[in-house]
Amino acid sequence: MRTRAGPLLLGVLLAGSGCRFDGRPAAPAPENTLETDTGPDTETGTGPDTAPGPAALEPLVDHVVVLVLDGLRVSESFGTGTSDVTGGETEGILPEVRRRVLPAGALMVEGLATGITVTIPGHCDLLTGVRTEIGHFPTPAGAGGYRPTLPTLFEALGTSGGPLLLTGNTDHMESLGYSVYPGATSSSGATYELITSPEDDDQPEPHDAQVLEQVRARLADDPPRLMVVNLHAMDLAGHYAEDPTRYAANAHEIDSDIADFWDWIQSRDSGLAGDTALVLVADHGRHDWADEEKERLGELAGPDYRHHGDQCQACRRIPMFIAAPGVIAPGSVEGTYTLEDLSRTLAYMLGVDLPYGSGMIIRDALESAPTVDDRSGTYQVDATETAQATWSWTEDRKSTRLNSSHLVISYAVFCLKKK
Known about the structure:
By secondary structure, this protein is α/β, with parallel strands linked by helices. It has ten helices and 14 strands.
């Protein structure tokens, strides 16, 4: 259980300002519970280069493959009960994954997307370990017009050897291979590859099963250290298919393909068995407004699960699963875990520190206790283009975080100490 670690100041991050709505600066945080890293001083070249954390870690796995099940709700994946999309039991949508994959890893029962519940911010949270405060959307200037503000997992791995790949069947991902943090360049991040249709090279591959085939081929040829794959057909069908239930049907169609993919990773032929982690996670869920559906839809086309993007429970709750034999302890993990937590956990497993990540390592999912301290807090880049943060630690150096109960602010965010 996570509890408060002393008197803390809670607030909402406002880009470019303090933590108050009235424009006045927030009160300073208690000195005895906080440590502040103001990041590198770009003018004098002095000051700490990273957030508190280890200089080097030993990797627990050589490769991580993240399959992002775009827009898949818990009620159509790893939940229980009845899906209002199919009218049948949730367990019947991904039966092979449940039977052949879930027993090999840790299922986070309460996985959450705490930021903006749309595709690019969700991926940005996963890749940076920091909740995105503004939407990163493609613009007429191109999908690369907006990049993450803080360094990504790809950049943390950039000097550790081995290729890094961001791929899938949507061009939404193109902007997320590296950040705009000072010093970051395309060479320090991931290669982006859009998987296209064999009938039209200008169009994304419409079938997620074909995406998995190409991912498998790439892993067999030159396995990346980190490979983040967006499977977009589910979300696309939810939004635009003439029959909106196609969303759940597309999830069911890749059920056996995902299970076969995991079986192949664990086989001798793959060359990946024993040193590769598989992650199944969604970037966001979808609306489930229940009795309020008609009123809240307004002029939007129904049903409610055609859409997502607010802070309803079904948009925020996401499937979250990690498998890595010998590293991840199989079973269900209780408690609330976010995309930021998953990000920092993957960084730890890959043997790198995610210096600006505000998440906590998912300790209960690991076979052995982590060798690093936990922390809680947040980073934000200020007007001088340096990152500033306030961290909170407990007396035994294991930080704790206050969780709310399905509110817009899902966990405590500590006000930034300004220069």
